[in-house]
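Supplementary Data S3. Sequence and structure tokens for construct A.
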Amino acid sequence: MQISVRPTTRQPSLLIRLALQWCLVATCHAADPVVSNITAVQRAGTQWVDISYDVAADTPTVAVTLAISSDGGTTFSVPATTLSGAVGPGVARGTGKGIAWNAGADWSKQYSATMRFKVTADDLTPANFSYIPAGSFQMGDALDGMSDAPLRTVTVSTFYMGQNLVTKAEWDTVRTWGLTHGYTDLAVGAGKAANHPVQTITWYDMVKWCNARSEKDGLTPCYTVSAVVYRTGSSAPVCNWGANGYRLPSEAEWEKAARGGLNGKRFPWGDSISQSQANYFGSTSSYSYDLGPNGYNTSWSSGGYPYTSPVGSFAANGYGLYDMAGNVWEWCWDWYGTYAAGVQIDPRGVSSGSDRVLRGGYWNNLAVYCRVAGRDYGSPGVTSSTRGFRPVRSSVP
């Protein structure tokens, strides 16, 4: 569409060509924001231009930017600083959004017959993370009578979760930085290859690694001991849930994310499991919902022990998360204990204990342990080739 605006003595003439603009973001989850129905009109008798658009997004708000070209879109170098309206961070998704550009202030007495306007929306999801929307879900087991996972309604706030388990390569990068920034006892860890999940590290190592990555990325660390950033030792830390750094998920966050938007299913994709969907030990005679084949997943049982698989080897769930069943157990924040009864809002487990929660199953587990409601536990100071983790971030600035 083209709009021709008659010039006046003191204002520029604008010939505006409008185009649909998809958002430009570093990562993809269920759906990236989409900007559509862009229009631009020069206000009669003024040097102002009114731009309107619609934006659809999974997130409640997005960050909107406007770029302007005077050469048909080859470059977008026209100053666009004097703006008001639905632009910048915190713009609510919806229709009929408006931006006002003061062309007289930014581009006075300039003229082009090939003006172009580009509106971009970014949901600000961190790279390689998925946005997990706030909302209620049914946490626990409704199918198989798991005694330690009774059904309850849980509401979880918005957060971001790593799309993959932390790999050995990622662990090494942060550990190398941490060793020269106060994290002097971070374990070396193990991994079958650089793109396999890191394992043979303690729960304490994982939370210290989260703090190290937070500081490395210029974020606020979540974990402290005696009000000091947790960098060394094996003390039980306090978590600042309002910090914007990396941390382990709560058990409720993990289960909501693992379900991928589905409710009442055994697995992130449905009620049955096969080795085309996860890295686990098949036993079709043990469980009717195990479609096998039997034994170790042959795609990954070669090349030596342990039989982990490269992260992202199977299809993602509805939130764009990989390996939420099988491969390695995933540590959570919570002490292992009995679920609190009744409706819960952002539950974070019992106040103390001796073991931390593990979720998701691993490469040598039967199908029953890979269910989204399945729970296990372990001492936070013990290492194993069966245990890894993925970080999350709270949805805060």
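Construct B, processed identically:
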Amino acid sequence: MLSTYRRIFDAPGSLAFSAAGFVSRMPLSMTGIGVVTMLSTLRGDYGLAGAVSATLALSAAALGPQVSRHVDRYGQARVILPATGIAVAAMGVLLLCARFDAPAWTLFAAAVPAGCMPSMGSLVRARWALIYRGSPSLHTAYAFESVVDEIVFIIGPILSVGLCTAVFPEAGPLAAILLLLTGVLLFAAQRGTEPPLHPVSLERSGSALRTPGLWVLVLTFVGVGTIFGSVDVVTVAFADHLHHKALSSVVLSVYALGSCVAGVVFGALKLHGPLSRRFLLGILTMAVSMLPLLFVKNLVALAAALFVAGLSISPTMVTTMGLVERIVPASKLTEGMTWTTTGLAVGVALGSSAAGWVVDGAGAAAGYWVTVAAGCFAAATAFLGSRRLRSAPEQQERAHVDDDQRQHQPG
């Protein structure tokens, strides 16, 4: 199994850009929870802290695809450096406003441009697609990056909260800023593996979201994100109800661990059959795996249920990115991948809010009904859109050929 993963790094420069991508993705799991911890500590207001964090998440969801669209058109390094500069400067202003007790509106004003940070996971996967397009190794590379995502979400929140509570309140978000800046600078320096530009195709057509089938993935991922957002909030509330709130991070790490284990195994498999069928099976499995959460009575049972539920996450994510690579023209690949993560981010915001309302009104355990409902929505969307996904690869294979032919035409 290890040799399968080792072989993907035989490509020159692959280890360097993947490692830089890991560093630059750490803020993805550190920023939101760091902002909540910082503001709740400095101002004692969880409502304000959650609202600012949600503003940051929604801003990233809105701005991320636009940044990625410019990446496809003008190149990774040329776009991510100024975008990161804007995000870092805005986060710096946010930290200063929090430290010096500026009016609440200044926190929201700073959070909006802070969402300009590039979708580094999409950029990393675009480089893997350039190296291994059409090869089984691309499946392994995507699986590896999915495992990296889970490691980020295991380490990041613990690191961010720990810094905020043990050092000073702004330490978690500050560390996230420094990691983002360092990772992006290292990533941008790897010019030899940067995907080529596709200016002809981009002038000829609009957003990647118009690609047949992509909206099915994005809408399904809104449901998947709602699962993630609700699980986070309800698990913390459930642990608090049992007077073990400090153990909630451990339980959530078990959830990520299940996904990590499944991703390692899934990436080493040699799979056959259409990606669309694999995607539908993954979403249905994810939805069904949420049902046991309605019946847990203690943290041990909850951890076991979440570990099992986590087993479907990485395989589904890997398959989704494989589908995006198949159905979206190469000239819009980064944008297409970012739209799926945008759907995920919107879902996380919705899930967190809905679960909070249910927990406040009906108790901690009732919050998992939001998780189950989100799973049903994701499964229904994937099922109803499965025909579109089955036909999309053939349509886009012709689009890839057309793009290549147009780019090689004289004059």
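The radius of gyration is 21 Å. The chain has a mean pLDDT of 81.
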